[in-house]
Amino acid sequence: MLTDVTLRDGLQSLPTVVPTQRKIELVQELIAAGCSRLEVASFVHQKLVPTMADADTLCTQLPRGRGVAYGGVVLDVRGMHRFMAADLDWAGVVVAASDTFLARNQRCDKAGALERIAGIEQLRRGSRVRISGYIGCCFVCPYEGAIDPARVGELCDALLQLGVDDIYLADTIGRGTPPATRRLLDEVLRRVPLDRLGVHFHDTYGQAIANLDVALLAGVRRVDAAASGLGGCMFAPGASGNVASEDVLTLFDGHGLATGIDARRVAQIGQSLCRELGLPNFSNASRALLAAQEILNTGGNRE
Questions:
Q1: CA 46 to CA 270: how far, in whole Å?
Q2: How far is it, in rounded angstroms, from Cα 73 to Cα 83?
Q3: How far apart are CA 112 and CA 106, in angstroms?
Q4: Considering only CA atoms, which of 28, 35, 113 is closest in space to residue 76?
Q5: Checking CA distances to 302, which of 58, 84, 257, 263 falls within 20 to 30 Å?
Q6: In a 3-state reduction of DSSP, which class is residue 69?
Q7: Of 207 and 14, more confident
Q8: Of 164, 107, 111, 156, nearest to 135 (Cα)?
Q9: In angstroms, rounded to a whole number, what is the distance separating the alpha carbons of residues 273 and 211?
Q10: Does the active-site annotation cover 138?
Q11: Could you tell me the pLDDT band of residue 105, with boundaries at 50, 70 and 90?
Q12: Buried b (16+ CB within 10 A) or exposed e, 104-113
């Protein structure tokens, strides 16, 4: 199950604010390409994340009733009230395996972040809303260095006790490697049922697809990705974009995993967005798919 995070994580750290109407068009394009699970907003203070200032307005304009599920990131009870009013399907709550990172990102430590998640969990009780718990800095913290997998495992236990529906392991700064991914999964899968575990890889060091391959071989099927590898973490120095949807879809195909998503259409969507924003296309598969399409369109004649 691929969750497209282009609209939230892909656009969140940009210096340019994408207009709400363009975001809605992007949602429509992604749905037309076959995406059925989209993370569209972050319910945080607009001074901290100005690119997400239109979250409430955006959610009133989302196309509904097409079998599409929408989610958004929530960091505290105030954000959860906004989320509930927006009538989305799942909320992503966040803790990190590093107190220093949390202090700089959310102005709290692990205990404080878990306390906030407990409050969010209380608000959603009795509703149809699902909660996905994200654990950031699973491999390396930009301030504290390497993270012990056991520390991540303890946070998994805490999140499950709070009642989250699933857990996503997030490589916030893209420092994970295949051997480290295997070690982390060995620890976490002793605590989290396989069907409730997902991954959120960033590609700063070019390891995201290799890490994802390890996760798929272990049976993980919940994956976050963004068109053209857009995104990054504004609170993590040097962190670049998400693993590219086009690359993920190519890998899924190699594993015989059907998604119903048209990788070529996603490549076209991502390329168009990159051109609008003046950003490079970070997806290898996208460049190959677009080149192959151009050859088909021209019959191999470039004159």
A1: 25
A2: 9
A3: 9
A4: 113
A5: 263
A6: strand
A7: 207
A8: 156
A9: 26
A10: no
A11: confident
A12: ebbebbbebb
Q: Average of pLDDT values for 134-149? A: 96
* Alpha-carbon gap, residue 264 to 229, rounded angstroms: 15
Which residue in this structure is represented by tokens 């070529």? 264
> Side chain identity at 14, as an amino acid letter?
L
Q: Could you count the other beta carbons within 10 Å of the beta carbon of residue 279?
A: 16
pTM: 0.94
Instruction: Name the band, by pLDDT with cuts 50, 70 and 90, for residue 293.
Output: confident
Q: Are 57 and 85 in contact (CB under 8 A)?
A: no
Residue 300: pLDDT band (50, 70, 90) is low
Whether the Cβ atoms of residue 130 and residue 88 lie closer than 8 Å to each other: no
Within 10 angstroms of residue 37's Cβ, the number of other Cβ atoms is 18
Domain boundaries, the chain: 2-298
Q: Which of 35, 108, 141, 233 is catalytic?
A: 233
Spatial distance between the Cα atoms of 28 and 97, rounded to a whole number of angstroms: 35
**228-249 pLDDT tens trace:** 999 865 555 555 689 999 999 9
Token digits of residue 131 = 């909660």
| Local structure of 1: helix, strand or coil | coil
* CATH assignment, 2-298: 3.20.20.70
Q: For residue 262, give both structure tokens.
A: 């048209």
Say if residues 72 and 41 touch (Cβ distance below 8 Å). yes
Identify the residue whose tokens are 């803790």: 95
Taking the C-alpha atoms of residue 230 and residue 222, their distance in angstroms, rounded to an integer, is 19
Six token digits for residue 30: 């992604």
For 61-94, what is each residue's pLDDT tens digit?
Answer: 999 987 999 999 999 999 999 999 999 999 999 9
- The two three-digit tokens of residue 186, written as one number: 């060995």
The answer to whether the beta carbons of residues 140 and 177 sit under 8 Å apart is: no
